[in-house]
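User: Hi! I'm a student and our assignment asks us to look at how structure tokens line up with a sequence. Could you show me two examples?

Assistant: Happy to help. In each example below, the sequence comes first and the structure tokens follow. Example one:
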Amino acid sequence: MSAAKRKKLLAGNWKMNMRLAEIEPFFTAFAAGLDAASRQQVDVLFAAPFTQIQATLAACRARGFAVAAQNVHFEASGAFTGEVSAVMLTDLGVRSTLIGHSERRQYFAETDESVAKKTVTAIKNAMTPVVCVGELLEERKSGSTFEVVGHQVEAVLTAVKNQGPLKDREAFYPGDLTDGLVIAYEPVWAIGTGLSATTEQAQEVHAFIRKVAGEILGNDFAGKLRILYGGSANPGNIAGLLAQPDIDGGLVGGASLKPGDFAAMCITPSA
């Protein structure tokens, strides 16, 4: 599948932000900033904190946006204090989740193994995992970017392959976000720092991720796979990033908390 046929996806990661009273005003302002073309040409997803998921679902269903969790446990139930399972999320109507965000890896000791297990669990529960991969600053400086990112991608996709071929995904409201999963490349050194990979650096890694995906799950899968860029994406740099052939959208942090900024980013692909 060519880049032109892969629908752009802008995913806002609210992290540990957004009070309950802020949600409806946010979406009122955000929706007002969109145009008809962007609503048709771009998928929009919001990863909300667990406590705000129901309110976010209510606001998004009325406006045609999708909702994701920011994390999920790989077990269905059990003695895992503080964790939330995939079945609990699907009970609420959540059909997507972030997995392996760099902050989860850094602060909560998530590993390639646990990320792979969570990814398989999400797919088994008809959830679309948005799997995050990326290198640290010292790894980029040492020339290890492709080794690190390649290992992260291989761990996830090999685990998926070992579960059998990806089955057709049941469409979920407001529509199919992907044929099976989404990968987000987030250079860790660019997250929350104001730094951003150049468009050339980002494209180079995205093309590499697609190549690895093709080697493991086949070129048909790789051609359909949407790969997002996450790393201080903002209204000023999103157009250049989305113009690259292997960059299919963005995983947006800080800018997704500003309805005007995020709306401007969602309009960009249709401009």
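Example two works the same way, sequence first and then tokens:
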Amino acid sequence: MPARAAIAEEPRAHVVVRGAGAPVLLLHGWGTSSDLFEPILDGIGAGRQLVVPDLPGFGATPAPAAPWSVREYADWTLALLDRLGVDRCDVIGHSNGGRIAILIAAEHPERVRRVVLTASAGIRARRTLRGRASVRAYKTLRRVERATVLPASWRLVAKRRADRRGSDDYRAATGVMRGTLVRLVNEDLRPLLPRIDAPTLLIWGDRDTETPIADARAMERLIPDAGLVVFEGASH
């Protein structure tokens, strides 16, 4: 058992464990929960032990005490596996869950047999001039909102305009999870991809606008033993 076994996962996980056999870890994406995988569990569960946690901040698992990065999520996941007595497993990661799978596979290859990344996040989008201007405008609006020396009406207008900016995920996130989202989307995991030794299957939809097909092709190039399957007409 790895030395990490002494570390308890905090917050304590709500996790579905089903079946017996070779373990498979399934990691859901942002804004979802272990319920995401319910429709496919019977299809992949024969002769397998399925480990399907609600990641911290989603489903029935509480949010962390402070904003987390991919590394904290990966450490938490490994501690959960240790508690369950799972030394090595196949890993399936969807969207944000793919970020966690990438880090674990790259930095803890002894824990991973094979990897499946479905519409995985992990490649940070390059900001355009328009994107950088939008970020500056957002920060300015938030500064105006907090400036108590300004009239309340100005601050209210700034708040309303700022609240309309950002992605749907950002607007929906609150408190520590908003800070977590900011940390996650600003991490670029490209340097980790060549370090993944496990055979890796990439599954993508050609109409995915959240993690575009270009990300899949970049991962296919950078991961040494990777193959890509594209579903026509499918999105994220």
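Here is something you could point out in your write-up. Residues 1-7 have pLDDT under 50 and may be disordered.
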